[in-house]
Amino acid sequence: MQFRHSKTGCKRENREDSYYRCGLFRAAICESASSLSVWANQKNQTELSYLLASIVNPAFATYNATSSEIYEYLRKLPAYEIDRAAHQIHLMEKPSDIQILKGVYWGPVIEHEHKGAFINRPMYEMLEDGDVNDVKLLIGVNSEEMLPSDFSNLGQTIAVFEDDLELLVPNKLNAKDSDKAVIAQKIKDFYSPLLNFSVNQRQFIKYQSDQSFARSILKATELESRWHDVYVYEFEYHGPLGKFADTPFIGFSDDVRHTEEISYLLCHSYPSLNTTDVTKYPVSDQIVQKIMTTLFTNFAKYLNPTPEKMDILQNITWPSVIPDNFQYLAIGSWMEVRRNPMENMYRFWNEIFSTYGQKPFISY
């Protein structure tokens, strides 16, 4: 059993996709990520490797080194030098090249065919063809993953995107340059048809959440459900235990940020958030914490989050996804089994990819 969140979650799915992990895992829990996440792979790894080497040793900026020479040089460096140079590259990040929207610098890569290659095919194609290991999966997303806790830099990012709407187009859609202006306008009109994003900031945040998390997780679920059991949730509970709420939200909240669900599964002991004693939190937070730990431990033990009727789980049966019958569990201050998560958004992006996308897709 693997239990992974966010960036480590995409690595979990890549391990599942890889032939070299065959038989090592029987199940996995993957929160807020999939191998199809747009940030979960890097297609410019060669340029980044040369840049990394040139930061450590400026001679590489002018010396026409081979990739083998770069590799041998980097593998002999102390880890702290690589880490320091990588941090400098991180500081070069611009609003137009946000890693969470475009691809993390040091993410998984597709290798050329060779003995020992870990991933040598686009991840989307592997899931579509069933070229994956039979690993049962519990996967999910929070209701607004990209809702920031600090809005101070949001206006700057929005201004860059409004100056060049084509930045809205996913770089791994592989769209023709001649189509990008049309695609960008369709995306803008879907999220905020009447107002600029600078006025309607919440819809830009919604675009970011869908682009970086929700869309790819739903597509990975759709594809994986053809080959093995997949259980999907949307976490919509917003309470003080998750750090970003002063009082519990009764019902299902649209304001659940990235990582909020973690506090309902694991204890934290940070200066800003101490959850080691959940009795200090509202009763509804304690109930949701018990629900989450029960669902996840049931899956770890029985490969089914609801193997039997349980009062703490409202006697609900959480169904796995069946192709053409996409059921999922909405987790708020109570739980509901629903169909077709984020239906309008998912339909819109499916149309964009089917109309303008050019395979092979790496992500979605």
UniProtKB/TrEMBL annotation:
Cross-referenced SUPFAM superfamilies: alpha/beta-Hydrolases
Pfam families with a match to the protein in the record: COesterase (PF00135)
Lineage, broadest ranks: Eukaryota, Metazoa, Ecdysozoa, Arthropoda, Hexapoda
PANTHER family reported in the protein's UniProt record: CARBOXYLESTERASE
Top-level lineage group: Eukaryota
Ranges of residues in domain Carboxylesterase type B: 22-349
Protein name: Uncharacterized protein LOC114344691
Keywords: Glycoprotein
